[in-house]
Task: structure prediction
Amino acid sequence: MANHAPYDERKSIGPTPDLAAKSAICLQLPHNSTGSDVIIYEKDADKAMAPASIVKLMTAIVAIEMASNFQLPKSFKLEIVPEDDVEGSGRNLHAGDRLSLGDSIANLLVPSSNVAANLIARTFGQMMLGSKTGTSHDAVQRFVAEMNTTARNLGMTKSQFLNPHGLAVRGQRSTARDLSLLVKKCLIYGPITRVWGAKAFAIGITGPVPRRLVLKSAFHSSTRRAVPEFSLPQYLGGKTGTLWPAIFNLASVSATKNGGICVSVSFGSPTVEERYHDYLKLVDLSNELARGTV
Result:
């Protein structure tokens, strides 16, 4: 999908949904590259908050761009080292495991693997440093610097990234408006769009313990446990960001019922259930706009 023109300045078209989220934005994307994105709803969209694992979308973009810059083949493999291990979600890789960049991105986005985030950041950070003499920390920080450069180039003026996985750290922040720009950018990258809406995705691991690893979506799994009637017929993809026990974020892309696309970001929904219902309210608003009822 091509890059889109700037925002239409209209705000909150039609009835305002009652969201539990502290901050949100919803955009209707144009049907062609000459139109403007229309903001159909926003709520404190410039409020800076912790993005949590939505950070991983930027990690994926920078990795794909770096792979292109270094002209790496599709067969390029990344190898886990002990320093890549980190607490939190997707702790499914071990030192010596080797996997392709495409499978690393799948592991980054589907089960939201923090280990995969460190693997990607360290590997490409070392390439950018031009030497393997630096520490893993140095390499990761070089990669994070590139994340922030990319954010500025995208117009994400109120975002600051401090790690590649989104674990809570003082000073790491973004806004719903900035994240909507990030989600739109993701639409041009096949390695992201092929996996970010999947309920499950299989990857191959080589190394000391070769295996086929079936990844389960952190978003689908957590929401289904909390909401038995969970259904996302229009959801195309995106990324959650969770800081337990009371911060549940979602940046997503959805199809509207007239064949269009909307981007929605909800920041700070207080429960998994409310994150899900906030998402549905924004998609419903997009559908109403598409039908011409607002």
In short: Confidence is low (pLDDT under 50) at residues 1-6. The CA atoms of residues 240 and 250 lie 4 Å apart.
